[in-house]
Amino acid sequence: MNEWKIIVQIGLYATVSFGREPFKPRDGSVPFLVYFPSRYRGLCVGTLLSRTVVITACVCIADPSVHEHDTRPINVVTGATYRHPRRGIRVQVTKIIIPKLSNSTGERAYTIQKSPAILILAKRVPDVLAEIPLRPIDIDYKGDEVLALHEECLMPGWHFFYKGDKIYPVHKFLLQRNIRVQYLIIVKKSLWCNTITMKFQKAMTNLGFVGYFDKASSICVKDPDREAQPCHGMYGAPLICRGKAVAMLLAPDAQWSNCTGGTNLVQLFSSSHIRNFMACVSGLFEPEFKLSWEIFKKSIENDLSGNGHFDYLPDVYDRMLDVMSSSEEV
Question: Which Gene3D superfamilies does the entry mention (predicted)?
């Protein structure tokens, strides 16, 4: 994890951070995460709030620019953190609940891009069928957790833009097969997320929104090393702080063009504009355990000196390279 220390050298104080690239979490350590193909955003992430309730981004099931939403069947992939057509259990969504939308195109677009959506699953998946038994996580929709500047949180998902990565022509990008987790810290929005904020406001203005931009509804997070960033295919990914889901990656019209910026805007579940909506649907939330933040951070990590970073088996890979070449030549 990222460690923050104060050191003294020649009478000067300095803050030093030790970051790292997104890593593969230990199998079974994120049983609350699901994913599904979206008509509007490609791949979207969801978070289990009960065995049959998923929270995701509203942009994944509704188009901000037109008065419609996706009426095609949605199947959520559960029980696996490795994305593959033959992995996981697909469960049909039978009902979608979103905040009330205005008839005004601008107001509608703003609400969709700043709000979550609730997916009701057709059935509860038995543990015996799941590769990774499903377990919902607690959500802070009341704002009980007062988050501090430089507080360490984490975000799981299937794509992080890391140093050296490339965005291919026509907005093509590569998604990871294995889930990744990245530690992020909360930083000053005015300093680190000003560009994203301005791009989001411009996008909303182009869609006809002329209302008040609620600046308190979002927070800014970044990798302290400025090397990794949650990116495409991560809409709906939760920000987990102190063992609770506190926010979600939304605002795609801003995040997309700022993918290499190293920072993200995430929307708080306790935002005032969705407070009534979250209170209304809160009866559907059924967390099964109180997640200890410190224990969770320890349990999520693989042995970083072993195969925690890799999708292949290092011992097999090493044998393949034993005679032909050295690792330095690869």
Answer: Trypsin-like serine proteases
DSSP string, 191-247: HHSHHHHHHHHHHHHHTT--S---GGGEEEEE-TTS-EEE-TT-BTPEEEETTEEEE
Please give the torsion angle defined by the CA atoms of residues 250, 90, 291 and 186, in that order, rounded to the nearest 10 degrees. Answer: -20
Tell me the per-residue pLDDT of 169-190, one tens digit each, with 9 for 90 and over: 555 556 778 888 999 999 999 9
Residue with tokens 């959520």: 76
Helix then strand then coil, in percent of the chain rounded to 5, is 20, 30, 45
β-pair partners for 301: 25
Q: How far apart are CA 330 and CA 326, in angstroms?
A: 7
Q: Which domains does the chain have, with CATH numbers?
A: 33-288 (2.40.10.10)
Q: What is the pTM of this model?
A: 0.83
CA-to-CA distance for 265 and 196, rounded, in angstroms? 7
